[in-house]
Amino acid sequence: MGEEERSLNFIEHIVEDDLASGYVKKDLRFRFPPEPNGYLHIGHASSICLNFGLGLRYDSPVNLRFDDTNPAKEEKEYVDAIKKDVEWLGYNWDTECYASDYFQQLYDWAVELIREGKAYVDSQSSEEMAEQKGTPTEPGKEGPFRNRSIEENLELFEGMKNGDFKEGTHVLRAKIDMASSNMLMRDPIMYRILHRPHHRTNTDWCIYPMYDWTHGESDYIEQVSHSLCTLEFLPHRELYNWFLDQLVDSDKLRPKQREFARRNLSHTVVSKRKLLQLVESGVVNSWDDPRMPTISGLRRRGYTPESIRNFADTIGIAKRENIVDVSLLEFHVREHLNKIAPRVMAVLNPLKLVLTNYEEGKEEWLEAANNPGDESAGSRKVPFSRELYIEQEDFREEANRKFFRLKLGGEVRLKNGYIIKAESCTKDDDGNIVEVQCTYDPKSKSGSGTEESLRKVKGTLHWVSVAHATPTEIRLYDRLFTDASPDTHKDKDFMDFVNPDSLKKVTGYLEPSLKDAKIGDRFQFQRLGYFNVDTDSTPENVVFNRTVTLRDTWAKLEQKS
């Protein structure tokens, strides 16, 4: 039991303390509250895993609640994408909720606050309100409309609701304390006028509630026990509680807000505004571009739900913000794909190799294990012939002892095949090697059990048969930014650090077993990395994305803090 307690994160300790001090387990309820104004990213994945993980740990319901209070930026497309992402990560919500479900209740409560003298309509401009709000070191001043009569406030607020006024002419503010040390308590705005159609309520409303007013009240309506937010909402907790103080019934559960630190990922940005800028400027093709840190982008690139959940579990929940090296995320996808991805052969930078002592027109089909670490994965047949492709970088005319691949006069084993020896090579007019002539040892076939097959050579190369290879579009993705923290430079824009080599397209040559690969299928291209079939694929034109290289080519995992 003690070991289990030590494994709890601080949020779980809060829940445990609440249960010990009077909370009833059956009353626990959590929620994940995204705003549908963009696609979810890797930062949201941590929050999803936290809230739904608590639901699983305590066998408690978790609501998926859309904070849809800004029709100017929200779309049904984003709602659908968010639902797909949460389901793909492996989680099921108890109730699908929308802040817009509560618009009438929130309006009725706002009217009550006006009647109690706790809210008023302010007709100042935004610049005037900002000026009279004061500074962190100077108290604010009461505005000229702060003491309007209740009757006038009610009349104006109803007019705002009915669409009688232009945007920006009036707002509804809570009447709290213009001298508060917490500037969020200096009469915060509760409602603003927006003449925009809403993705669910269309034009039913001309006023929309602000997040701080909506947040706690939505939690209260849904009877959420623990409202978990990122650390920037810590100053908002006082306001969250003030709004609840005005409304809660003693016989109902009162939600509590608690905060955890946002985890930023190196070599990326997660601001929705900046992600949208990447899309609109054409740096990436879409929200689900495989270079994007969005969950849909990671899914399209070939990441697995398990790898993202394992990543979230590893970085844990903390009280201080920090930057997590993206290498850790890549480590987790490598670790999972290593277990589940079939091994196949593909050549991305081909060099022709001819076995001069192999009979012309002859072919044979060699046995190849799909995953040497998993016997249940079975095996497949790969074709072998006189002419093969190997990688350009796997051959040198001359090389030192540390080069364990093919060189003139040297021997290597072809994966699942034979031991070969390079005898000569052919060059074009520019001196580039275009063909290597080799001989093969017909008695050295892998798995044949002959003395020759047991002979040790230092290098093993992957290959494909020229006659059987399928030319295929391969998209080699890399990190989108060259800088570990591209949006923290005061003198430079984050766009200055876009990696010009974040995407390279090449024609690869694949073994024929891959011609029937389906969208989303994942493979290890032996010695090259992990790849999956992209959504752009058609039966006539299969496209593969590189998910991640076999090894970290940017920084070693041990260097992460």
TrEMBL record:
**Quick check: keyword Oxidoreductase in the entry?**
no
Q: Where is the Glutamyl/glutaminyl-tRNA synthetase class Ib anti-codon binding domain?
A: 341-441
Write out the residue ranges of the motif 'HIGH' region: 34-44
The Gene Ontology terms for molecular function here are: ATP binding; glutamine-tRNA ligase activity
What are the binding positions for L-glutamine in this chain? D67, Y211
The catalytic activity of this protein is classed by the Enzyme Commission as: 6.1.1.18
Q: Which reaction does it catalyse?
A: tRNA(Gln) + L-glutamine + ATP = L-glutaminyl-tRNA(Gln) + AMP + diphosphate
> Per the record, GO CC terms?
cytosol
The residues covered by the tRNA synthetases class I (E and Q) anti-codon binding domain are 460-534
Give GO BP annotations, semicolon-separated.
glutaminyl-tRNA aminoacylation; glutamyl-tRNA aminoacylation
Q: Which Pfam families match?
A: tRNA-synt_1c, tRNA-synt_1c_C, tRNA-synt_1c_C2
Summarize where ATP binds, as residue positions.
Answer: E35, P36, N37, T230, V270, S271, K272
Q: Is Translocase one of the keywords UniProt gives this record?
A: no
EC top class named in words = ligase
Please state where this protein is localized: Cytoplasm
Sorted alphabetically, which keywords does the UniProt record give? Aminoacyl-tRNA synthetase, ATP-binding, Cytoplasm, Ligase, Nucleotide-binding, Protein biosynthesis
Assembly mode: Monomer.
Enumerate the NCBIfam families for this protein.
glnS, PRK14703.1
Family according to the record:
Belongs to the class-I aminoacyl-tRNA synthetase family.
Per its record, how is this protein called by name?
Answer: Glutamine--tRNA ligase
Native organism: Flagellimonas pacifica
Q: What is the lineage of its organism?
A: Bacteria, Pseudomonadati, Bacteroidota, Flavobacteriia, Flavobacteriales
